[in-house]
Design brief:
By secondary structure, the protein is an alpha/beta fold. Helices cover 62% and strands 6% of the residues. It contains 25 helices and 9 strands. Strands 2-1-3-4-5 form a 5-stranded parallel β-sheet, with helices on both faces. A two-stranded antiparallel ribbon has the order 6-7. Strands 8-9 form a two-stranded antiparallel sheet. It is globular, with a radius of gyration of 26 Å. The chain starts with a strand and ends with a helix. 54% of the residues are buried.
């Protein structure tokens, strides 16, 4: 019998039990033939049999109970020996580790032959969520058919969002796409904390590609770019005939470059992927629509709102809302974000309500239909139904978060708080989201903003503390290494500033700026936003000269990468005008206001921002007329 998978394991701390469960699940549910020495060794030399099995298998599953690698410093250790042979035969290694235990990524005491193991994309094993873990593992082994596309959130906590998250007040919008789902519209599923983008079925270059996706999940953009580009180059040299597989990599690179703020490069890769998918599968295929969505995001990020909205509508016209709720939800979120950006708040809220209407079986009129935990644990539900309910609950939570952000922009703090609290309730009542997810972290960050507006500093600090701790718990980052914390640190600074803790507040603004520059570079929208937040702090403490410098830096970044016709650029100009006016430079204040008003007029904004700008203009003109 030929075994597709070789299972390597450490017997102690439950390793053998984990290995046996995984083997049984893979064989019974996915028909994947797995070799486990405890069950499958025959008579004869066992070492020769193990070598032969490793050599003939497609991939190696490395089962890692706590402390599994502690003995690998010994030359005759069997786990070390199996890993070394797997690498010698160029096998893809897939670690399966106990939930919450990341000690296997510590390479300090590992021999040179095992270095780099911590960068392998693995599967978290939890006995309560065994089905989800095995399904993900089966996908890595070649049995998954659903491929996932980016992008949930706007800037940093979208971008984990965050992602920056995943997560920003602009949230990471993520949605799914899959080859087989073109004909078979079963409910789509996605990984809880990140959505793996197009895990390839090919052996060639797949390891580097998966390493790149893992680094992207942790928002290590530079390493992700290196590995995915390496996979791209290897594929283009070795298997140029696989145009569709190359298109999948191109799409991932395009989405990655969107996160990195490299918009020109992003468009080139996305456009190439779209042409290939459209030719191979047709304009209405899920693959083609997925890349269209990413292109619409590109247009949104670069300020071409009209084209982005037109593309969104084209995707919706080609989508059956009843069968592709995830697609509709993602596209409508982008539409609403654009309208929110332009100050068309009522229209944005209406669209978010349309998304909630898609999931009336989950909630209605702000009330949960029933405990979402019942959906997760319901033994009578099929696997696809459980996936649907957990997926749907995420979209409901994300939508309430998005509605809350719109209410904040409108100055409706009480409505914003109710929306964020509803999102938090949904997160905490669903075991697939829970109190340790990026969506929950985003919600706590948003609540902290609300409490800051309400001057409830203690409650705000409690929420922002929770938002900080969650990414550390999930990814094991050290302080100041997670890009999704840029916005969180800015909110921390705001709250401490309101509390009168100026020294601590300034340190958090500095951390936000330093982290943004280290993660995204000097020329990224997130860095511009961090400069703007720091500028507002210096404006509040009457250091107008420093504030002017920071606002000008923010504007320069926006102009360099996005051009001038963008709402955030108008806001930065308005802030610059305030700083100039407060510093006594009326001429430059008036000039900055004119720039802001021109942008707003060009975007045909319907927001209170124009009134705010006019109000500042009147203040400046009045002081000029009075000779001040």
């Amino acid at each position: 019998m030929r075994y597709k998978v070789f299972i390597s394991y450490r017997r102690r701390n439950g390793g053998l039990e984990m290995a046996k469960i995984l083997k049984k699940q893979l064989q019974n549910r996915y028909a994947i033939a797995a070799f486990l020495d405890a069950d499958n060794l025959r008579e004869g030399r066992f070492d020769e049999q193990l070598i032969e099995r490793i050599k003939k298998c497609d991939k190696v599953v490395l089962v890692l109970p706590p402390g599994a690698l502690e003995q690998c410093g010994e030359e005759n250790d069997w786990v070390r020996w199996e890993i070394e042979y797997a690498r010698k035969f160029h096998k893809t290694i897939i670690p399966v580790y106990q939930a919450g235990d990341l000690s296997w990524r510590d390479e300090e005491n590992l021999p040179e032959s095992m270095r780099g193991l911590g960068y392998y994309n693995g599967v978290e094993y939890h006995s309560l969520y065994l089905d989800a873990a095995v399904k993900k593992l089966a996908g890595y082994l070649g049995k998954r058919r659903h491929f996932l596309y980016h992008h949930l959130f706007g800037s940093s906590i979208k971008r984990a969002g965050l992602a920056a998250c995943m997560l920003a007040a602009v949230c990471m919008i993520v949605w799914l796409a899959g080859c087989a789902s073109r004909r078979n519209h079963e409910p789509l599923s996605f990984d809880e904390e990140f959505n793996d983008h197009l895990v390839m079925e090919l052996n060639n270059a797949s390891h580097q590609y998966e390493q790149g996706l893992y680094s992207w999940k942790r928002l290590d953009y530079n390493r992700a770019q290196r590995d995915i580009l390496a996979a791209h180059d290897e594929m283009s040299e070795q298997i140029p005939q696989y145009d569709v597989e190359m298109a999948k990599v191109n799409n991932s690179l395009g989405c990655l470059y969107l996160d990195m703020g490299k918009y020109e490069e992003a468009y080139d890769f996305l456009n190439s992927a779209y042409i290939t998918f459209r030719k191979a599968y047709g304009r209405r295929s899920l693959e083609a629509r997925a890349v269209q969505y990413s292109i619409a995001q590109h247009d949104y990020y670069t300020g071409d709102f009209a084209t982005a909205l037109k593309t969104c509508q084209a995707i919706l016209d080609d989508t059956d809302a009843a069968e592709d709720k995830t697609v509709v939800s993602a596209v409508k979120h982008l539409q609403a974000k654009i309208l929110d950006e332009r100050g068309q708040w009522k229209e944005a809220l209406d669209i978010y309500d349309e998304v909630l209407g898609l999931y009336s079986d989950i909630e209605k009129n702000g009330e949960l239909a029933e405990k979402l935990t019942d959906y997760v644990y319901g033994s009578e539900l099929e696997e696809g139904e459980r996936e649907y309910y957990s997926n749907a609950s995420r979209w409901v939570a994300l939508t309430y978060n998005a509605k809350g952000s719109v209410y904040l922009h409108m100055g409706e703090c009480n409505k914003a708080r109710r929306a964020f609290n509803q999102a938090l309730t949904i997160c905490l009542e669903n075991v697939y989201i829970g109190d340790n997810s990026l969506i929950t972290a985003q919600t706590y960050k948003n609540l902290a903003v609300v409490y800051g507006h309400r001057r409830e500093i203690r409650r705000g600090l409690d929420c922002i503390d929770r938002a900080v701790k969650i990414p550390f718990n999930l990814f094991g980052f050290e302080e100041d290494q997670y890009p999704g914390l840029v916005e969180v640190y800015d909110v921390y600074g705001d709250l401490l500033h309101l509390a009168g803790e100026e020294e601590q507040a300034e340190s958090y603004y500095e951390k936000a700026n330093d982290l943004s520059i280290a993660s995204y570079g000097e020329n990224h929208p997130q860095t511009a936003a961090a400069y703007n937040a720091f500028g507002l702090y210096y404006y509040d403490i009457a250091d107008y000269e420093t504030a002017v410098t920071l606002f000008e830096q923010a504007i320069e970044i926006r102009k360099n990468i996005l051009g001038i016709d963008y709402t955030s650029t108008a806001i930065y100009y308005a802030n610059l005008a305030k700083a100039y006016e407060a510093g006594g430079n009326q001429e430059k204040a008036q000039d900055a206001l004119e720039h802001a008003k021109e942008i707003c007029d060009g975007l045909e904004m319907e927001s209170g921002l124009i009134d705010q700008l006019l109000q500042w203009a009147q203040v400046v003109e009045t002081e000029e007329d009075s000779g001040l």
